[in-house]
């Protein structure tokens, strides 16, 4: 055998290995980069055509579920089904989209509430951000669930610090990923959580935050009892671990609940009632906030 032949075979093997490593690296990057906020964002530029009869309903909800980061494949459709049931029951107009270009002054003016269904990543360009801010602070209502606070702090300070009232997410337990824990209702008089009673048990992926939303001026409705699950040393927030709260950005109002990683959450009648009351509360521009 020629001495050159083993070298050619070795060179071919090394080339194939290099190509394989590059392909695996690209695929890993496509999965990990959006979660870590390293991907180059892309934005929608052409607004969708809205239904003509939104104003005929007593309340119009813009249901937004765009994800430029991690996507909750199980939770998003379950939350959608819950929201659709709520809208049918009340005769509300519901428009669902993942097109961020709907965030313009003319289109947002046709809605009473924006429902953020596990939205993650950089979903808006600068003009869309400005329209969102103006709409909310002029009296619009926002309701966000779970992943709506899951990664956003890396992209837009107004969203986390003002709209979501200090929801700077830092992580959740990994092992076990889901845990049953006790949620303590701190404000049983508020319409969104009054039906839960003093406390309730729930299994979820429990979010932790850099600091309590209370410190940012939010009004806490329910906290997580860390004695009933294991957050881990790096994720422990102690006695003040808000999990449901409201904020008052400008003349608007915002409701956020960290519940909702799994589809089972949205099948709970008491959870669906919370979302229904949250939308109703967020839409009430005449009532004081909180």
Tell me the name of the CATH class of the largest domain. Answer: Alpha Beta
The low-confidence parts are none
Q: Report the biggest beta sheet as strand number plus sense, adding barrel if it closes.
A: 9 strands, mixed
Count every helix, treating DSSP H or I runs of 4 or more residues as helices: 7
Distance between the termini: 84 Å
Q: Strand share of the residues?
A: 15-25%
What does this 3D model show about the protein?
The model has no long low-confidence stretch (mean pLDDT 91). It is globular, with a radius of gyration of 22 Å. Helix content is 32%, strand content 19%. The chain is an alpha/beta fold and 290 residues long. The chain has a 9-stranded mixed beta sheet with strand order 2-1-3-4-11-10-9-6-7, with helices on one face. It has a two-stranded antiparallel sheet with strand order 5-8. It has 2 domains: 28 residues; 226 residues, Rossmann fold.
């Amino acid at each position: 055998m020629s001495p050159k032949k083993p070298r050619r075979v070795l060179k071919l093997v090394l080339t194939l290995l290099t190509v394989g490593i590059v392909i695996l690296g690209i695929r890993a990057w496509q999965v990990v980069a959006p979660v870590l906020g390293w991907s180059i964002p892309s934005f929608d530029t052409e607004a969708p055509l809205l239904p003509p009869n939104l104003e005929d309903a007593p309340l119009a909800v813009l249901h937004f579920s765009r994800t430029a980061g991690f996507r909750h494949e199980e939770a998003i459709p379950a939350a959608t089904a819950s929201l659709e049931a709520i809208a049918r029951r009340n005769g509300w107009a519901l428009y669902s989209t993942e097109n961020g270009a709907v965030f313009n002054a003319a289109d947002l003016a046709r809605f009473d509430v924006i429902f953020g269904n596990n939205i993650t990543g950089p979903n808006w360009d600068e003009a869309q951000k400005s329209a969102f801010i103006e709409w909310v602070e002029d009296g619009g209502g926002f309701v966000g669930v779970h992943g709506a606070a899951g990664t956003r702090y890396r992209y837009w300070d107004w969203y986390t610090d003002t709209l979501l009232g200090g929801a700077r997410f830092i992580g959740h337990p990994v092992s076990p990923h889901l845990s049953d824990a006790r949620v303590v209702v701190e404000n049983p008089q508020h319409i969104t959580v009054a039906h839960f009673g003093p406390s309730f048990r729930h299994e979820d992926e429990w979010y932790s935050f850099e600091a309590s939303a209370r410190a940012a001026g939010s009004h806490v409705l329910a906290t997580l009892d860390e004695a009933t699950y294991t957050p881990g040393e790096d994720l422990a927030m102690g006695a003040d671990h808000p999990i449901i709260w409201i904020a008052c950005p400008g003349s608007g109002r915002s409701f956020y609940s960290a519940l909702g990683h799994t589809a089972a959450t949205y099948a709970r009648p008491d959870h669906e009632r919370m979302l229904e009351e949250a939308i109703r509360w967020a839409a009430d521009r005449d009532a004081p906030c909180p």
